[in-house]
Specification:
6 helices, Rossmann fold, 22% strand, 214 residues, 3-stranded antiparallel beta sheet, alpha/beta
């Protein structure tokens, strides 16, 4: 299954999420790629929109392998495979402090206020899930705020990621689970990069101006 672009994929997800329309839902997009999709879904459900900022913490001497993550809450969340590594508390604290600093800068750049997930049903939108590390980070971060429910919505996800995630959330909506997955982009005909300026415009749409003609 190949999606034309993020817009088409978001519209398909919106149909699967119709039961949540007008029910005080918060839609949280994973920047940057998922934000255009999150906007479409939030508008369609008449829901509040936000960006969910998390960052992976890499294993010592292996920047490509995530063992945990941290969000703006400051909580350090371990991924399921982290037990294979012996990680010092000092290392985790230093990396977490470093990553939180970067998240705070992005929060300011995006103009995000204080986000409260407590008691809310949160729909987390991603444009695709390969390893599942980032989405696990998002789930743990939201869970630390005591939400009512967590729902994950994505067009495509690997079978391994689905197995990791489905027990962590109240509902997992995936349109397509391929037998083999190398990258998210291979399941889209058009998959352009999303810039920070696009994310800022999505979160804070420019006010329409009217011109009078004599």
């Amino acid at each position: 299954m190949i999606f034309t672009n993020r817009t088409v994929a978001a519209e398909l997800l919106l149909k699967r999420l119709s039961e949540y329309k007008n029910k005080n839902i918060m839609v949280a997009g994973i920047p940057r790629g998922a934000m255009p999709m999150a906007k479409i879904i939030a508008d369609g459900l008449h829901a509040e929109l936000t960006a969910l900022l998390v960052h992976k913490i890499s294993a010592p001497e292996n920047e490509e392998f995530a063992i945990g993550c941290v969000g703006l809450s400051g909580h350090i969340h371990f991924l399921s495979h982290a037990g294979k590594y012996s990680i010092s508390k000092t290392y985790l604290q230093e990396r977490a402090k470093e990553e939180i600093g970067g998240l705070e800068k992005r929060k300011e750049k995006y103009g995000l206020g204080e986000i409260n997930y407590r008691g809310k049903t949160v729909i987390v939108v991603d444009d695709g899930i390969a390893t599942g590390a980032t989405i696990q980070c998002a789930i743990h971060e939201i869970r630390s705020h005591s939400p009512k429910k967590i729902i994950i919505a994505t067009p495509v996800a690997s079978s391994d990621a689905v197995l990791e995630i489905e027990s962590l959330v109240d509902n997992l909506i995936v349109l397509y689970v391929p037998s083999v997955m190398y990258s998210i982009g291979e399941f889209y005909e058009h998959f352009p990069q999303v810039s920070d300026s696009e994310v800022m415009d999505i979160l804070h749409p420019p006010k329409a101006t009217s011109e009078s003609h004599l």
